[in-house]
Amino acid sequence: MTSSDMPAVLPGDLNEINAILDGVEANISSSLDLPAEDWLGQSGPFKSLDEFQTSSIKSMRELLRYTNVKPSSRVLDYGCGLARLALPFSGYLDAAAGGRYTGIDTDASCIDRNAKVFGSLDHFRFDHVNLFSTMYNRGGKKSYRSIKRKKFGGPFDLAFLFSVFTHILPEDCDDLLNFLNRRLVPGGEVFCSWFLLNPETEDRISRGTSHRPFPYTHGSVRIDNAEIPEGAVAYQEAEVRERLARAGFSNVQIHYGKWRGDIDSWVWQDIVTATAG
Predict the structure, then answer these.
(1) How would CATH label the architecture of 7-276?
(2) pLDDT at 146 over 90
(3) Residues in CB range of 38: below 8 A, 6 or more apart
């Protein structure tokens, strides 16, 4: 199955999704080098290359299930790390139909590595965003104003952020949401993962059945580590809905994740999708 043969998927059509993923895996070029194992810590908690690859397909499955991504889509991977999602997208996007991928990250070493690995694909690009990050870019700038005028190859039909808002503090949250909304076409989608707090989650935390306790507060959010606030951040669900609306997003959908405990779910973190205005 070539990229041009792959249809758009209706959310929840699991048989079609699995068939598409079989084609995606077959289409990924063997010339695309996987990262060295000693790099894996820069792109998530992966202990092996097999785990890295499995995770990339699993995340692609979530995008196919919860968004209207197509082979012709123009996609923005914010927080691309070591191009974990670029791998399946290299076997999915149809350049002839206008499909293209842009990955951006605060880690310049990851961006340099990705640009070399995917350099043969003209519809793929990688850009460094020189923003401050306690974990990845301590020398970066602390304001989104430094990048707000950059288009990064947009506009985009879909922006996705895996484990990004789980490390974003309230003082930067609105700036990032506004940045995304300005780069999406009207009707474009954002897909992002969060740790969301609501009465059900708070009850599980108090009973000790959630997988994260978030024992500390930082402004309006709760955090896991007082010394590294960005290490893991949990927002009140109502606050996230308000912030999305303020940034111009609508049609907010939430799919709760397994991190809460006592829940059967496809996903680990909570998935939020919304439509750009």
Answers:
(1) 3-Layer(aba) Sandwich (3.40)
(2) no
(3) none
